[in-house]
Amino acid sequence: MQIKNPPLIFQVVGYKNSGKTTLMERLISYLSSKELQVGTLKHHGHGGEPASVKETDSSKHLQAGSSISAVQGERELHITVKDTTSFELDELLQFYTVLPLDILLIEGYKKADYPKIVILKDEKDMALLELSNIIAVGCWNEVLAENSDYYTFPLQKTEENLPALIACMVGRQLNEN
Amino acid sequence: MQIKNPPLIFQVVGYKNSGKTTLMERLISYLSSKELQVGTLKHHGHGGEPASVKETDSSKHLQAGSSISAVQGERELHITVKDTTSFELDELLQFYTVLPLDILLIEGYKKADYPKIVILKDEKDMALLELSNIIAVGCWNEVLAENSDYYTFPLQKTEENLPALIACMVGRQLNEN
């Protein structure tokens, strides 16, 4: 194992229940089927914590006062970090430098400035087109992106548009580097 | 937030059900009550995985093929890393460099070479005294460590021995640095 070059980083943003996680899954499956190492980060949003691991030795460590606690099992490593509200996104991304990733996909974090795919579900989502660094737009209704200058694809047909979408994502970043 | 000097690293080792997690909890509580930033790592041992977070978006990302997936909630960050069996302990410890920790406590990983507290429960545990870099011995039966050259404390009285134990741990490392 060794640290590769920093991975290419992309975001998938959209309002709640617009289909972000499904698009993430499609992208991850496609990229990892091409033997690329993919990492992902998701913002859980407001109103609660991600499903936590309760009553484990790791949670005992955390309750006793540790700031970061991890458990290594036979196949997976689980790490929990407390009090991350003050962390900037770039600080969180430092956890990903330990692995030799090719691509890092971020679900959410609208205000971050990484190249992003925006999901438009209906008219009221159009404000998302004001976000920075948009490289592609996924639409549930193609009328929404009719006058868009971005690469646009219908979310009903994500599967068949994946190669073109990824070419658009990667081409854009390679041009910038 | 900034990266401090590397934290002092200690291990707590002992056979199954010898009281490792309880000693870890006591150490974490004491150290964090002194305003020290503590991180912890535990080896789950064989025969299963740590309690996992199922049916979450993070697990969806992992199932789709990502190597590392994280979810940031309002208070906690949960990171899951797949296929860590090939990781050396030192590679796992890289995840801890992101936080400004003072002390990193490792539960298990007997064969690692960090300064360690060994727990002796009964006669058959004496083989643990052959491990490298022992700095203290916690005993359920004081007869077990009668002829030991190490700092020894009875695990029935961990609480009152904590200040001396920690002085022994930290003093040892400071002398070496």
From TrEMBL, chains A, B:
Segments forming domain Molybdopterin-guanine dinucleotide biosynthesis protein B (MobB): 9-138
InterPro entries noted in UniProt: MGD_biosynthesis_adapter (IPR052539), MobB_dom (IPR004435), P-loop_NTPase (IPR027417)
Superkingdom of origin: Bacteria
SUPFAM superfamilies hit by this protein: P-loop containing nucleoside triphosphate hydrolases
NCBIfam families (alphabetical): mobB
Protein name: Molybdopterin-guanine dinucleotide biosynthesis protein B
Organism from which the protein derives: Virgibacillus tibetensis
